[in-house]
Write a structure and sequence with these properties.
By secondary structure, this protein is mainly alpha-helical. It is built from three helices and no strands. Helix 1 crosses helix 3 and helix 2 packs antiparallel against helix 3. The longest helix has 43 residues. The relative contact order is 0.15. The model has no long low-confidence stretch (mean pLDDT 92).
């Protein structure tokens, strides 16, 4: 097997893995655990707004909680976007191979 074939197979496997992960993350985005995490982030943000300006330790705690949960949302969204892009690439390769 030539190096071009090996490279092509690895690229296809990576695209397929990204596509599968994207599908799973899209399901996760609609799940109860994900909605729970995002609701916790909203509550923490509200608590941060209502927190006394002089309570530095509470402000720090709430900021960290909001950032952590926001990061989870970003990671999930990135995985979904990457999965959709991978699906598009796989479909395009399939279309080209049919021609």
């Amino acid at each position: 097997m030539g190096s071009d074939e090996v490279l092509f197979r690895r690229q296809m496997e990576a695209l397929e893995a990204d596509a599968r992960l994207g599908v799973e993350m899209e399901k996760f985005r609609g799940s109860i655990p994900y909605r729970y995490l995002m609701a916790k982030a909203e509550l923490a943000a509200e608590d941060l707004v209502d927190c006394a300006a002089t309570d530095a330790s509470e402000i720090c705690r709430l900021q960290n909680e909001v950032k952590r949960l926001r990061t989870i949302r970003v990671w999930v969204d990135e995985a979904v976007d990457k999965g959709l892009a991978a699906l598009d690439q796989l479909e395009e390769r399939e279309r080209l191979s049919d021609d």
